[in-house]
Amino acid sequence: MTHKVAFIGGGKMxxxxxxxxxxxxxxxxxxxxxxxxTEQCRLLSDTFGVNATSLSNEVPTACDCIIWAVKxxxxxxxxxxxxxxFSSALHISIAAGIRIKTLQTIFQSRRVIRAMPNxxxxxxxxxxxxxxGDAVTEHDKNHATLILQSTGYTFWVEDDQRMDAVxxxxxxxxxxxxxxxxxxxxxxIALGFNADDARxxxxxxxxxxxxxxxxxxxxxxxxxQAVTSPGGTTEAGLSVMNQWRIHDAMVAxxxxxxxxxxxxxxxxxxxxxxxxxxxx
Length: 280
Ligand SMILES: NC(=O)c1ccc[n+]([C@@H]2O[C@H](COP(=O)([O-])OP(=O)(O)OC[C@H]3O[C@@H](n4cnc5c(N)ncnc54)[C@H](OP(=O)(O)O)[C@@H]3O)[C@@H](O)[C@H]2O)c1
Prior knowledge:
By secondary structure, the chain is of the alpha/beta class. It has 11 helices and 8 strands. It has 2 domains: about 5-165, NAD(P)-binding Rossmann-like Domain (Rossmann fold, 3-Layer(aba) Sandwich), CATH 3.40.50.720; about 175-245, ProC C-terminal domain-like fold (Orthogonal Bundle), CATH 1.10.3730. An 8-stranded mixed sheet has the order 3-2-1-4-5-6-7-8, with helices on both faces. The longest helix has 28 residues, at about 245-275. The protein starts with a strand and ends in a 7-residue tail after the last helix. The structure holds NADP nicotinamide-adenine-dinucleotide phosphate. NADP nicotinamide-adenine-dinucleotide phosphate (NAP) binds near residues 8, 69, 77, 94 and 96.
């Protein structure tokens, strides 16, 4: 990639993306980062050799792609201060919950892509969903895919509402998985394992099961049946999970997260419409 890319915000997700795209062969000198935090800038330039600055006027206007990697609540202020510099760029927002129409308003452009990464992106094992605005070209989409796939798997969704479902599943998913792991570890400790063994056995069991499911052509349901001998220990354990309606709990979990994602989008839109037309 020879384009100039600017990151607005140089925190955790920006660091993951920058690390990924440099590993994939991008020249660090073509990457610019603006973050008001000088320590963070020093860390990024020392680690990756990118141009990181706490002075917004040091980011060149000729950047082809701007990646907005600030917290959702900081996005409006960040854009207000900087957007005039980047009138012809492709904008990619990774801010959770902010819909494409709102992003187009904030960036005063229709050439906008909304992306939803998840935390395993930090170690190159992420899942990112992308949705494009109406003025985005195939070339823009390829550019965004190239950037985001440096942190893992990417896929495009057909409408913005799907991003709420994606947020509920892959965006929030690491939280559910960590909760499940935590519960297994605590249960193992209650069975008499020490904390280290409980953690190790639990994590390796999770890792092995996921790897097996990824490699297998069988459905996950078949894999579960294959390890559940009638009258055996797995069956005894699973019957308790069924009694406690773990499946129903997961359905409700995803529904609740999906509704909350929609609510967050509504709340953010409301805050935008509270601005006067002159400010918008
Ligand atoms: N972390 C995740 O797993 C994850 C997953 C999906 C999506 N996202 C999205 O990714 C975005 C970034 O999240 P993160 O976890 O990387 O956050 P973060 O670590 O807090 O990074 C945000 C950075 O932006 C800086 N900043 C604040 N205001 C700014 C401004 N006006 N201009 C430029 N930089 C500014 C912050 O500086 P200060 O610390 O000094 O405020 C901080 O260094 C969020 O919108 C989030 O919704 C994150």
